[in-house]
Automatic annotation (TrEMBL):
Protein name: Multicopper oxidase
PANTHER family: BILIRUBIN OXIDASE (PTHR48267:SF1), CUPREDOXIN SUPERFAMILY PROTEIN (PTHR48267)
Domain of life: Bacteria
Residues annotated as domain Plastocyanin-like: 19-128, 312-421
Organism this protein belongs to: Actinoplanes ianthinogenes
PROSITE patterns in the cross-refs: MULTICOPPER_OXIDASE2 (PS00080), PROKAR_LIPOPROTEIN (PS51257)
Keyword Metal-binding: yes
Keywords annotated in UniProt: Metal-binding, Oxidoreductase, Signal
Amino acid sequence: GRDGAREFDLTLRADGHSAFLPGKTTDTWGVNGAYLGPTIRARRGEHVRVAVTNLLPEASTLHWHGMRLPARMDGGPHQMIEPGATWIPEWTIEQGAMTSWYHPHPHERTALHVYRGVAGLFLIDDPAGPELPSRYGVDDVPLIIQDRTFEGDGQFDTNVLGGTYGLIGDTVLVNGTFDPYLEVGSSLVRFRLLNASNARVYRVGFADGRTFQAVATDSGLLEKPVPVDRVKISPGERCEIVVAFRAGETVIMNSVGEPRQTANDIEEDDFTLLKIVAGPELTRSAAVPATLGGTATTAPPAGSRVRRFTLSGSEINDRDMDMNRIDEVVPAGALEIWEIDNTTFAHNFHIHEVAFRILDVNGAPPPAYQAGPKDTVFLPKHATARLAVRFGRHTDPGWPYMYHCHILRHEDRGMMGQFVIV
Ligand code: C2O
Ligand code: CU
Ligand code: CU
């Protein structure tokens, strides 16, 4: 733009036809194209302005999940865009390198809009960051993981969004592709995993059990790479991993469920996610640095304010979402402990605007690969999580941010609350 801002145009469309299944066509929604949307990216310190035009047949929003910005730019349920209208939020990128994403957030309609295909990635780059594989689509590959259920004629089945969890699809799409395949040409490849499913939880790893390195959580880099053989991601969560390949090999990325006795439906099933074929000769990648620049989790000082949230079937603190009620008022820049007590089946918990650290789940620290900055945390049934939450400084008593379960059925049923920063 003339003022030096980086400008993007995103148009929500409902006229897509996608060929997911062999010989069948699916009517889809998307951003700028038929299904999902473009990956947009900006650097720390840049000012961004996005023109979001809604060509859907109904009102919607576009929310910047993971972005720290003023509440009226957040794209939550208070920033509805009527059909045919354009909404133009702008803000300055104040956070470091991360993988964030955008998706609709209309109150009570989010599950359907995301299911039909409206979502995309927003990557933040930080020139001061560590050297990691970063050639987009070559050795830095986003993987947007979504389950779907198809009708016999190839359409998305929209009768499966009810019940306890809403959609628990039987078919997985990665980047909008059924049965995907990737050729790699370097010895190390970074994958940016995003769980953009309505409800399912994935435990991502490889069929041969190989270890790989986790380098970033939802909202930024870990302190140092963490060797793992599975990473668990619930809806809304991201995890960046770096995987080593040998020339000529074929590797299957998959998801393996939790044991049935301990898990809820959304955690149980196994899926093949991606077939990866390494070229006959691989470019040798620079090793992952021993330190990545993220910081370790430190406990908030004694006396920090503690807020408690009890999750039940579809309520938080025994209340449904009320667009006209502010549930929490938080001082600018506060560091607080949020204690999330899940009294029922599996949920997760997402907070807009903030970055938090998981202090503990059921009293134990999280696995090392989840010890970085987060905005969404999974809560197995009957689990309690304690979060150290750092709030931003965009004060506005008139516009709230949301916190909610990111299982979209639950969010739509009112498992959401509102806070303002003052
Ligand atoms: Cu991913 Cu309130 O959103
Ligand atoms: Cu969000
Ligand atoms: Cu939930």
